[in-house]
Specification:
The protein is α+β, with helices and mostly antiparallel strands. The chain has 2 domains: 117 residues, Rossmann fold (3-Layer(aba) Sandwich); 137 residues, Tumour Suppressor Smad4. It is 18% helix and 38% strand. It has 5 helices and 17 strands. Helix 2 links the parallel strand 4 and strand 5. The protein is globular. It starts with a strand and ends in a 13-residue tail after the last helix.
Length: 297
C-alpha cells in the first residue's frame, strides 16, 4: 500500500484551502509566532477556526488542513482532538524537540506558498485503537498515535502480563510495564525502553517490555494488522493502561486491553527537505562522533 500521496488541499475545487489553526494554550512563543505567520496564512487560505484551547469539534467540519503550533505533545493532542476525522496536519515547532512538528516558523513561511499550490506529500501513519474491556463490555476507548502502555504504578511490584496475538498466547512478560508503539511512537517511550526505531510509514507495531525480568525478553516488531490483547495477572492498585501519555483507565485482574489498527490514519504533510533520517540526525542526535576530552599540555 502506498503511504504517500501527492498533495491537494483544494479538495472541493476551492480557490483557497480552508484551514484550522491549533496551538498550545497559554504559551507565549505560540502566541508570538502565530501573530507573525497569520498574515501569510490569510493571504493564501481561509482560516476557519483558530483554537488555542484544543476545544474545536472536528466531527462535522469541512477543513482541508490543520496547522499545529507547538511541540510533539501538540501534534498528539491534535490527533486526539480529530478522533476518527483525521485531516492532514502541518506541524510548526514552537517547543523544544519538535520531532513530529518538524518545521520552524521560518521554514513554514518559506514553504507555505508551495503547500497551497499542492507541492507536498501526505504521509499516512498507523494509529492504534485501544479498548479497556471489563466483563465483556468496552469501558473506555482511545486512539493512539504514539503508543498504548501498561504501566505498573505503586507499589511498583513486578507485573505478569499475558500478551495474545490474534487470539493466541504469545508470551507472559515479567516486567514493570509493556509498550505497544506505532512507528511514529517508536522514537518516544519505546526508544527510552530500549525498543527499535521504525521508519514512520511502516505498517508495523513494536512491542517493548519495560525493565524486563530476564534478558530473553526482547522487543518484537509485528504487523500492524495483528490484533493484540493484554491481561495483567495481578495488577497493582494503580496499574493502568495509558494512551499517548494519558490514562485510559486503571486495570483489574480480569480486565482485557484490546489493541488493534484503527480504521483511520494520522495524516502528516511532508514538504521538501523533510525525511526520517534527517529528523533522527538533527532532532535526536543520531550518529555523529564521540567527543574526546582534550589532553592537557
Amino acid at each position: 500500500m502506498s503511504c504517500q500521496d501527492s498533495g491537494d488541499l483544494n479538495r472541493n475545487s476551492r480557490d483557497r484551502p480552508r484551514v484550522a489553526i491549533l496551538g498550545v494554550p497559554g504559551r507565549e512563543s505560540v502566541q508570538k509566532e502565530l501573530q507573525r505567520i497569520r498574515p501569510a496564512i490569510e493571504e493564501r487560505a481561509e482560516i476557519v477556526v483558530e483554537d488555542l484551547e484544543f476545544q474545536y469539534d472536528f466531527s462535522d467540519t469541512d477543513i482541508d488542513l490543520v496547522i499545529v503550533l507547538g511541540g510533539d505533545g501538540s501534534i498528539l493532542q491534535s490527533a486526539r482532538q480529530m478522533g476518527v476525522n483525521q485531516i492532514p496536519v502541518l506541524g510548526i515547532n514552537c517547543g523544544r524537540l519538535g520531532f513530529l512538528a518538524a518545521l520552524s516558523p521560518d521554514d513554514f513561511l518559506c514553504v507555505w506558498a508551495d503547500v497551497c499550490c499542492g507541492q507536498f506529500a501526505v504521509a499516512e501513519h498507523v494509529m492504534l485503537k485501544t479498548q479497556l474491556v471489563r466483563d465483556g463490555k468496552v469501558q473506555a476507548e482511545q486512539l493512539a498515535l504514539n503508543e498504548a502502555a501498561v504501566l505498573g504504578g505503586p507499589p511498583y511490584e513486578i507485573l505478569d502480563i499475558d500478551l495474545y496475538a490474534d487470539g493466541e498466547l504469545a508470551t507472559r512478560y515479567r516486567c514493570d510495564g509493556l509498550i505497544l508503539a506505532t512507528p511514529v511512537g517508536s522514537t518516544a517511550h519505546n526508544l527510552s525502553a530500549g525498543g527499535p526505531i521504525l521508519r514512520r510509514t511502516l505498517q508495523a507495531v513494536v512491542i517493548s517490555p519495560i525493565s524486563p525480568h530476564t534478558l530473553t525478553y526482547r522487543p518484537v516488531v509485528d504487523s500492524a494488522d495483528t490484533r493484540f490483547e493484554l491481561q495483567v495477572v495481578k495488577p497493582n492498585d494503580s496499574t493502568s493502561i495509558v494512551v499517548d501519555g494519558r490514562m485510559l483507565g486503571q486495570l483489574r485482574s480480569d480486565d482485557l486491553v484490546r489493541i488493534e489498527r484503527a480504521d483511520t490514519t494520522f495524516k502528516m504533510v511532508s514538504v521538501a527537505g523533510n525525511n526520517d533520517y534527517r529528523s533522527l540526525r538533527e532532532k535526536l542526535g543520531w550518529g555523529g562522533s564521540v567527543s574526546m576530552p582534550r589532553t592537557r599540555t
